[in-house]
Specification:
alpha+beta; seven-stranded mixed beta sheet; two-stranded antiparallel sheet; 38% helix; elongated; binds 3,4-dihydroxyphenylalanine
Length: 338
């Protein structure tokens, strides 16, 4: 390129920049002329091929071209987007009001339970939603033919694992991890069942499991006193518990646990079908077979377990008539929970 051609190139580039209509066009020209692979850097790179005696004048002209192009680009506001416009603050505008959130009723029940059982020495244990059939069924003394293992009740995964149907497998994990008693834990978490959603059912709900195992004798009376304390702390109003005989594969004996009806305080009303009691939890003394599955000797350890639904407590405590309200995150509903 001769010096004359170079001057023509410069004039053309400056004309192009002057004519650029918007930021996009300016950016394109910046790339074209002074970008890393632009034509001006290419000229600088090509300097070594310019005859030696012409090089100083040529170099000067290229540098001048570059400076003028950069100045022209800057004058058109190139790079303005990157550095941003000068910030302007209008101090007279009203502030932006971030609406305060409220604790979700399910979170609150779980936090309350952790606090209440915490006062009795229970810590919070955790387990995964995806479980093995061993932890969810076998170790809990639930045989393969038990209806709860049915494909129509349990979400089985393709790798022969499953979505836990209860928080009880955390009992197994806790005992296996502890290696030896005592253990005293509650385990809140999500559980899954192939239920059709309606006002009282959800395919994905929450439970809180409890487990106490010790080398000193643990009795059903211990279980009852702990759940009675929990009932009163959680529901207030001097709520108590009653036990009714039941069956669970992983406890022997097993009981269903009722709390004093929160509506009539035990007098009998339509909600509790005149009984004065509301069914809340399942519980019992840990079955010897469960201990054997985790390698513990049922002759030297004993314990109790219990499990209840978080949604059920939240619905009763806060008067929520439909379980689906707990999952819709409708602010009009959640604000009433504040
Ligand atoms: N896992 C039982 C359920 O989902 C609840 C339950 C009952 C848990 C008795 C326990 C228990 O730990 O001892 O229905």
């Amino acid at each position: 390129m001769t010096l004359e051609e170079l001057e023509q190139g410069k004039a053309a580039s400056l004309a192009e920049i002057a004519a650029a209509a918007d930021a996009e066009a300016i950016e394109k020209l910046r790339v074209k002329y002074v970008g890393r692979n632009g034509s001006i850097p290419a000229l600088i790179k090509g300097m070594k091929d310019v005859p030696k005696e012409e090089r100083p004048a040529f170099g000067k002209a290229v540098q001048a071209w570059r400076a003028e192009v950069e100045a022209a680009l800057a004058a058109k506001g190139a790079g303005a987007r990157a550095s941003g416009p000068a910030e302007s603050v209008d101090a007279t505008l009203p502030g932006r009001w971030g609406e305060p959130g409220v604790e979700h009723p399910l979170s609150r029940v779980i936090a309350d339970a952790a606090r209440i059982f915490g006062k009795l020495g229970f810590t919070v244990a955790d387990g995964p939603d995806i479980e093995t059939p061993f932890n969810n069924f076998t170790a809990l003394n639930t045989p393969p033919h038990h209806p709860s293992q049915d494909r129509s009740d349990t979400f089985w995964l393709t790798n022969d694992q499953l979505l836990r149907t209860q928080t009880s497998p955390v009992q197994i994990r806790t005992m296996l991890a502890a290696k030896q008693p005592p253990v005293r834990v509650i385990c809140p978490g999500r559980t899954y069942r192939r239920d059709t959603t309606d006002a009282t059912h959800s395919a994905n709900f929450h439970q809180i499991e409890g487990l106490y195992v010790d080398t000193k004798p643990v009795s059903l009376a211990d279980l009852k006193s702990v759940l009675a304390y929990f009932a009163n702390e959680m529901m207030g109003n001097g709520a108590g518990v009653r036990f009714r005989p039941h069956f669970f594969p992983f406890t022997e004996p097993s009981v269903e646990v009722d709390f004093t009806c929160h509506v009539c305080k035990g007098k009998g009303c339509a909600v509790c079908k005149q009984s004065g009691w509301i069914e809340i939890a399942g519980a019992g003394m840990v079955d010897p077979r469960v201990f054997r599955h985790v390698g513990w000797d049922p002759d030297t350890v004993s314990g109790y377990a219990f499990g209840f639904g978080v949604e059920r407590i939240a619905m009763i405590k806060y008067g929520i008539p439909d379980i689906r309200w707990l999952y819709e995150n409708d602010l009009r509903f959640l604000k009433q929970m504040a």
